[in-house]
Inverse folding.
């Protein structure tokens, strides 16, 4: 049975947590994207709220600061009419030496219905999901270098929105693949959805050859990596990689792997350009491209709210 | 008249603020516990919100950080449908040199309905209650070493839930009594509710003999302190006491006063173990006890939400 | 056409942003004050909420900390039933090097309906208003030394409330005029509303002669400045001006320009005393005056909530 290996699904195969895209059935991903699509019209209506999580308490547990991601979950939960409690974990009991599981047990005893968890440690959301009561749901909002599944899902929503069908696409993921939970979630999702060619593009320090085990084509040459691509996903270059052993310099990276109009011209004429944000203009992407007609970076943000509403309402509905 | 001495009650003896358990009529305490009981079913319902404070503005004024306590009040207020405003006092006008009473006057002018106040200075919530307009209510969420009345009330709810009647009980409060506002509130409540034997258990540095004035039996011997107890309330040992003049070491404290299964065996077989949290595993309590069948530490947390909802709705309803 | 020069108004002359009082039509100011008046009864009702912004998402973007001002906007938005998202900008992507306009573009893509912006740079709210989509509205909550229009409007509400008619008044603004966005907004509003005599009162370092260009009478003598005034607006003396080149000392400032009962006696007998808060007792104002019968400092705070509700509901209703 799937449920034994996959703690995200209940005995009926229904989604009860979102921890990772790895191991999600293709139908579950499409269910999330379809539900997100139905919420998008909600976002354009005058009154955007729906009562699907009315009376539910959603806790944002950000052990790692991320105002942007926390805000998207807060908006999504409020549009579902949930009560949202933001916990500043850095200053809470955890700082007093309380263990992660004791913190979770206490918040559960306050009748939390959902935890949205970001944590620097890979696997922390799994640990939490294993210890919560059956009526409590967990969403991984990014754990270590492991996974960022809602980002992966919103990227899939974006690709489906613009390209309709996954089965004929070439998708290039460009940049610091090895340290990126976004890349990892995207690659798993693209594989599950049947994308025939997924390329991991970047220097050897950031895109080592063993990434081939994830079912990607590794390209250390930018031209080869984006030639005839339908979709280009640029990753944010973290500041801490920009100097030292990993990379010669930000300028050098831009020259070789930064997405300029010239390089973009190698992709298909209708290729779309994606980025999880926040963008580093002039580091991994040229402003002309970021603001250009092929960029779908801002629609990604809009779709992200709808995808998070979809995930939250689906897992909350699967009470087992 | 009671109201002259007790600023918590109006001229009709109704509760309008919750500042301290000291001086509360026994009937008022039972009214709060009864009301909390009626909210507990609310917490198990699908939609947990009740509209009792709809349209009211509750301000969390935490002059001292406490994410855990602030969260319980935020949840309680939101489940009563109040608007909750969390003020980060450390960064506010108070830091600019505005006095406490000027801050309160300004927030009152914004039509605050309730202040939940935590302050390092004993008596700060009294000072505030003396200066607010008649329609504004104050809840003490912990002031200095003085009082933590909602913790005291949730502890009484817990004891009543498991032991039904207070009048035959032996209750042991163990640990750092002298610095604990929780202990102080618990002891006052136990006295008011007619508990015949309340014991204060711990080393002489943390349980000085003059505590006897509070109507407790002082025990410097752990075995004597918990023998035949019905209820054991373990207190959190603050880090700053663990070294220096007060205590030889955390390890030494655990050896003598830490609650282990062996020591717990001295209490009545159906004794319950309580703790205000967050627990220090291996300092004041053994994990086997904290997670064991006699521990009611997590139910305390659940009851705490209901008790805070009860306090807030009762004082808001007593408009004079 | 007005709309070309004034980005606050749409093609029909309707208010769509509130960026500055400068350039607002007198009728628009009166419309805001009239609307605020209608909300004031709301603040006294048992249920204070009105559903005018139900389902709208209001983002508090405070690039400069101000708990007090942020709180007034949060309360106002919640009383209009909006969803409020407070962004701690100092810790957000902006800190990661994202530009102001990229931050705004991203939040807009999350379907923000309104931005309440405080920024240390004069003009930042204008820049934002120029780049948001037509359905998004911007309120300036204070930008650099430039403007603080909602403070100016609540000051006008206060004056109209107590003095009924602007056209016969003498208004003295006292203190650090040159660094004060409040003074600037007040002076523009008083001019637009037809106050015949506006005086800027203070030492030459804080009230330079070229302020006359704003249509005020510059007074370096306190007695001359407040004699026969109907309204005295005392400004907060910022700590950083109290020593050094600008002023000899706080004590010296109080002696010369601090509002004492003796100096207040020079004004009209029914003069009102205003202050934007937080007050520095004994620096710019004597406690006897601040707490006295002519002080309307706390009513200003109450009116401020109603004025902010008025501004938010008016600009949200002017969808173009």
């Amino acid at each position: 049975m799937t449920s034994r290996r996959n703690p995200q699904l209940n005995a009926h195969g229904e989604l009860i947590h979102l921890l990772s895209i790895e191991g999600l059935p293709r139908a579950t991903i499409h269910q999330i994207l379809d539900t997100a699509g139905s919420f998008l019209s909600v976002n354009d209506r005058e009154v955007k709220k729906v009562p699907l999580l009315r009376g539910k308490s959603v806790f944002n547990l950000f052990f790692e600061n991320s105002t942007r991601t926390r805000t998207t979950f807060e908006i999504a939960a409020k549009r579902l009419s949930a009560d949202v409690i933001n916990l500043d974990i850095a200053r809470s009991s955890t700082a007093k030496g309380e263990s992660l599981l004791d913190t979770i047990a206490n918040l559960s005893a306050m009748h939390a219905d959902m935890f949205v968890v970001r944590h620097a440690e890979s696997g922390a959301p799994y640990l939490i999901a294993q210890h919560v009561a059956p009526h409590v749901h967990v969403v991984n909002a990014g754990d270590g270098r492991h996974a960022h599944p809602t980002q992966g899902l919103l990227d899939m929503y974006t690709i489906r929105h613009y390209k309709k069908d996954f089965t004929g696409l070439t998708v290039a993921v460009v940049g610091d693949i090895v340290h990126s939970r976004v890349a990892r979630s995207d690659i798993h999702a693209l594989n599950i959805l049947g994308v025939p060619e997924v390329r991991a593009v970047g220097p050897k320090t950031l895109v080592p050859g063993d990434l081939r085990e994830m079912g990607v084509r590794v390209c250390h040459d930018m031209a080869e990596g984006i030639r005839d691509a339908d979709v280009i996903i640029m990753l944010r270059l973290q500041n801490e990689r920009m100097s030292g052993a990993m990379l010669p310099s930000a300028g050098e990276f831009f020259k070789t792997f930064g997405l300029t109009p010239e390089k973009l011209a190698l992709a298909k004429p209708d290729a779309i350009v994606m980025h999880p944000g926040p963008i580093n203009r002039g580091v991994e992407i040229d402003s002309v491209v970021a603001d250009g007609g092929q960029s779908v970076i801002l629609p990604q943000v809009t779709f992200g709210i709808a995808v998070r509403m979809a995930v939250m309402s689906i897992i909350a509905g699967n009470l087992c």
Notes: Chain C has two domains: 2-148+303-317, 149-301. Residues 141 and 226 of chain C are 29 Å apart (CA to CA).
